[in-house]
Amino acid sequence: MTKGKMILTLFLTFLKIGAFTFGGGYAMIALLEEEFVEKRKWLTHEEFLDIVAIGESTPGPLAINSATFIGNRQAGFFGSLASTLGVVIPSVIIIMMVSLVFDRFMQLRYVQYAFDGIRVCVVYLIFSAGCKMFKGLKKKPVTYVIFGVVAALFIGFYLFGYGFSSVICILACGCVGLFIFAFDNVRAKKGSAADMKEKGGKDE
Amino acid sequence: MILLEIFLAFLKIGAVSFGGGYGMISLVRETVVSHGWLTDTRMMDFIAVSESTPGPIAVNMATFVGYSQGGVPGAILATVGVILPAFLIMLLISSVMKNFMKLKGVNAFLDGVRPGVVALIMSTAVTMGLSLLFGIGDEKSSINFFGMGLLVVIVGIATGYKRLRKKKISPIVLIIISAVIALAVNLIFPSINT
C-alpha cells in the first residue's frame, strides 16, 4: 500500500469509527480492536492493549489518543492528522446540526417533560461511570485518602457557594502521587535503620 | 475576543482531562458556568444529547459549547483546542518516547491523579443531584419528589438488567426509558410539573 493510499484508508476507517460509536471512548475500544487487530492485522493484541493503556494515562479523549497513535505508526505525521480528523469530523458535523435546532427543540412542551426525566438519568449515568472507575483504582490507603479529600472539598465548596478549580485539583493530586513515590524511595534507601529511628521517635 | 477565549478554555480542558469523557465533565461544567456560557441545567441536557449522538463526548461538548458562543468558527476552535494536547502528546510518545509507560514518575503522577478524577466525577454527579432533586445551590430551591422517585426507578432498572443479562444497560436505552416515564407521568398528572 502506498503512503497516500494508506493515509486515505486511515482517514476513511476513522471516519467510519467516529460516525458509528455511541457512548464515548470506551465503546470505541471494541470497534478499534475489531478494525485494526482482527480485520487489518496492523497491530497485535498486546500492542493494542499498550495503546489503550497509554491513552488512559495521557490527557484528552481516548479516541483522539488512539487515532493519533495508530495513524503515526502506519503513515507518520500525516497519517496521524488524517486519522484524528477522521474520528472528529462526524461528531463536529452532527453536533453543529443538533445545535441549529437544539433551542427550538427544547422549547417544545413535550420535550421539556421528557428532559425532566432525562436530567435525572444523566446524574445516574455520571455517578455509575464514576463507581465503575472507582472499582478499577489501586487498593492502597493513599487512593482512598485522595478520593475522600477531593470529594469532601468539591462538595463542601459547592454547598458553601465557592468556586472550585478542577484543574488545580488534578495537578495537586498528581503532585501528591509524585511526592509519595519520592518519599517511598527515600525511605526504601535508608532501609530498616530509618524505620527503627522513626519507631523510637514515636515511643518518646 | 470570544473566539480566543473559547480556544484557550478548551485547550486547558484538553490538557488536564484524564479519565475520558466523564473525566472532563467537571472541567467543562466549571468553565461554562463561570464564563456564563451555559447554565447547569442546559449542560445536563446536553450531556444527554452527547450520550445519544456518535463520537467522543469531549468532542461533542466542545463543539456544542463553541457553537453556542461563536458559531461555526467557535465550534471548530473549541474542538481543535480540546484535541490538540492529546494529539501532540501522542505524536511525541509514538515517535520519540516509546518507553513512556515505563517511566516511574509518570505512573506515580497517575497514581495520584486517578483517585482524584474519580472523586471529581462522582462529586459532580452528587452536586448535580443535590441541585436537581433538592434545589441546593440552585436559584429556585424546590424539592423534586418526581425526580427522586424516578432516580429509584432508574437504579432499579439498571441493577435488574445487570442481574438478568449479565451486562450493563446501554446509556441510550436508559435515557429513552427515563424520557418516556417522565413524559407519561407529566401527561397523566399535569400538576406534577414544577
Query: In the residues of chain B, how many domains can be counted?
Result: 2
Greatest interface and its participating residue counts: A-B, 100 and 107 residues
- H/E order of the elements of chain B? HHHHHHHH
Structural class of chain A: mainly alpha
Oligomeric state: heterodimer
The domain tally of chain A reads 2
Order of helices and strands of chain A: HHHHHHHH
Fraction of residues in helix of chain B: over 70%
Mean pLDDT metric of chain A: 85
Radius of gyration of chain A: 24 Å
Question: Which regions of chain B have little confidence, pLDDT < 50, spanning 5+ residues?
Answer: none
| Major sheet of chain B | none
How many beta-strand runs of chain A?
Answer: 0
The termini of chain A sit apart by 75 Å
The number of helical elements of chain B comes to: 8
Relative strand content of chain A: under 5%
- Residue-averaged pLDDT of chain B, rounded? 87
Residue ranges of chain A: pLDDT <50 for 5 or more in a row?
199-204
Give me a quick take on this structure.
By secondary structure, chain A is mostly helical. Helix content of chain A is 86%, strand content 0%.
Report what the structure shows.
The complex is a heterodimer of chains A (204) and B (194). With 204 residues, chain A is mostly helical. In chain A, 86% of the residues lie in helices and 0% in strands. The N and C termini of chain A lie far apart (75 Å). Mean pLDDT of chain A is 85; it is low at 199-204. With 194 residues, chain B is mainly alpha-helical. Chain B has 2 domains: 2-140, no CATH class; 144-194. Chain B has 8 helices and no strands. At the A-B interface, α1, α2, α3, α4 and α5 of A face α1, α2, α3, α4 and α5 of B.
